[in-house]
Amino acid sequence: MARITAGIATSHVPAIGAAIDNGRTLDDYWKPVFEGYEFVKEWIKDNTPDVVILIYNDHASALMLDIVPTFAMGFAEEFLPADEGWGRRPVPTVYNDTDLAAHIAEQLVIDEFDLTIINDMDVDHGLTVPLSLVFGEVEQWPCKVIPIAVNVTQFPTPSGERCWKLGEAIRNAVKTYPEDLDVQIWGTGGMSHQLQGTRAGLINAEFDNRFLDLLAHEPEELVPITRLEYLREVGTEGIELIMWLTMRAALGYGVEELHRFYRVPASNTAVGHVVYKARS
Ligand code: DHB
Ligand code: FE
């Protein structure tokens, strides 16, 4: 049977991708950020999954205002890095596991999550920057990736409760897949940041660190945080943290926190990163 063995969450700041692509990771500004990912880059070598289910948000790169799905699954055979205004990132094409994706899509609909299925889609920094942070600069990504995009760019965005239930439904779907696959669940985005308006640059380290304290062992404390609270406490883009809740729910009750990292600043964002091993 397939099983979810581990979860990773990380911020997905586009400037981190630019630092990697332009050979700037050892700059004084960036070095302390990349040091926070040394653990995962070593750990993943012995823990490379067959498939990553990657919960992220598109930033109006593939999903413009004409169609705004709350939850969408990338169902193409492959996904190219999106051109976000300065050309496609020089990173590998992302390959899907369409058999597992089809199973998850079907089970999620049975579980009352009516996913939008996207058959042609580019993937932006929300997906490619985490792959670069974990796998480094490689010729090919070493596993398949099923992209699941959560809307956080247009009101109404889904609640933390809804994202938690999505994670639980993904967990149940993976458990009933007959092939013997090692699956990881990743959640990207956050932590506190606001990119525009009079509060641009907002960082709430107290909120972020409480979130990190509770996510591993008391995540139920975080699930009821409302959309308004995210906006008020961690800024307009801080709501990307709901992707972390989906990741955590998909891991089930017990997790072991293998690694935790928090660093300010990276661009306008408080960078957070965790690695959890599933217990069951
Ligand atoms: C930044 C962070 C993001 O999560 C994002 O999607 C875009 C920009 C930033 O801090 O610059
Ligand atoms: Fe983002």
Give your account of this protein's structure.
The model has no long low-confidence stretch (mean pLDDT 97). It contains nine helices and ten strands. It is α/β, with parallel strands linked by helices. Helix 1 crosses helix 5 and helix 4 packs across helix 6. The chain has one domain: Protocatechuate 4,5-dioxygenase, Chain B (3-Layer(aba) Sandwich), CATH 3.40.830. The structure holds 3,4-dihydroxybenzoic acid and fe (iii) ion. The site of 3,4-dihydroxybenzoic acid has 13 residues, from helix 1.
CATH architecture: 3-Layer(aba) Sandwich
Class of secondary structure makeup: alpha/beta
Number of extended strands: 10
Measured as a percent range, the helix fraction is: 25-40%
Number of domains: 1
Chain-averaged pLDDT: 97
Hetero groups in this structure are: 3,4-dihydroxybenzoic acid, fe (iii) ion
| Rounded radius of gyration (Å) | 17 Å
CATH fold name, please? Answer: Protocatechuate 4,5-dioxygenase, Chain B
The run of helices and strands is EHHHEEEEHEHEHEHHHEE
Portion in beta strands: 15-25%
Flag low-confidence runs: none
Strand order of the largest sheet: 6-3-7-2-8-1-10-9
Q: Major beta sheet, specifics?
A: 8 strands, mixed
Which overall shape is indicated by the principal axes computed on the Cα atoms? globular
What is the CATH class name?
Answer: Alpha Beta
Number of helices: 9
The span between the termini is 13 Å
Name the CATH superfamily assignment. Answer: LigB-like
